[in-house]
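At this stage, I put together a protein sequence along with its fold in token form, as given directly below:
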Amino acid sequence: MSIHVSIEGGQDAQPSRNLQVLTAYALAGEWLKAAMATTTNIRIGTENREHQVLSIPAIVSTAFAAELYLKAALLAGGDHDAEQIRRHHLGWLYDKLSEAQKVGLRSHMGVTQAAFSDFLPTVADAFVEWRYLHENVGQLINTDFLCRFARAAQAVASQAMQ
């Protein structure tokens, strides 16, 4: 993928909100593709089914994709600008969504509010924590929840852009 952005007005000019939304959404898709490229399916035990195993790069890429999708949704809503949402914490970004977007995200994931509240803190800092795993050996993460969260964030962003 090649993204070329040309902004008239020189270095100090700011990209339009629409351009920021589209760029965040497109880049999130690329990070999600990168995550899937480093994902492996393995058979565990005697079960006759495969389990998806995310590598460390896949976890980082999935978390960053989820972050960018949430940012695209927030920017598309028009209540936030890029500087206001310049954080990596998925829980913080989720809290900035409208109530309807929060319900839509949880609904897309197929989880209850209680289950969502239990699992969100376990993935909220995944982008930062898993990039620096060598400093935090022993981290655990629910990769199924993270993947479902990223896909749900994609759906929320897509809806917000319409």
Summary: DSSP finds seven helices and two strands in the chain. The chain has one domain: 17-161. Residues 37 and 158 are 22 Å apart (CA to CA).
